[in-house]
Design brief:
The chain is of the alpha+beta class and about 110 residues long. It has one domain: Aspartate Aminotransferase, domain 1, CATH 3.90.1150.30. The protein is built from four helices and six strands, in the order αββββαββαα. The chain has a six-stranded antiparallel beta sheet. A hairpin with a 3-residue loop joins β1 and β2. The longest helix is centred in the C-terminal third of the chain and has 16 residues. It is globular and about 40 Å long. The protein starts with a helix and ends with a helix.
Length: about 110
């Protein structure tokens, strides 16, 4: 997957904003809460995962527990370019949904998040 496709996939989701934090990391948020991060300097990325996806992705060695966010079930990948675009889009959609579900009902309505 390309960085441009990653950005497009994230921004296509409802209520998404992107901030550059921690140097040059692209941090994607919904309702002010992070759901995905892309590090352009190293071409790595991470995202919030469900309990099952976290276990599968980390136990099979496809991804690793994300530094500082493993307890929150974030998965880290060393290379975006090496990943299948459709699969990453699915993970991003799921991550967005997990984070959006924890927002208040009022904020979800304001952002147009189902």
């Amino acid at each position: 997957m390309t960085p441009e496709a990653f950005d497009k996939a994230c921004r296509a989701l409802p209520g998404v904003t992107m901030d550059v934090q921690w140097g040059d990391d692209h941090v994607y948020k919904v309702g002010g809460k992070m759901f995905a991060v892309y590090g352009p300097a190293a071409d790595n990325f991470s995202f919030k995962a469900s309990d099952i996806a976290f276990e599968v992705l980390t136990e099979t060695g496809r991804g690793s527990p994300a530094p500082y966010l493993a307890k929150a079930k974030w998965v880290w990948f060393a290379s975006l370019e090496a990943q299948n675009a459709a699969e990453v889009e699915g993970w991003l959609t799921s991550a967005h949904g997990l984070v959006a579900a924890k927002l208040t009902k009022k904020l979800r309505a304001e952002l147009g998040v189902g």
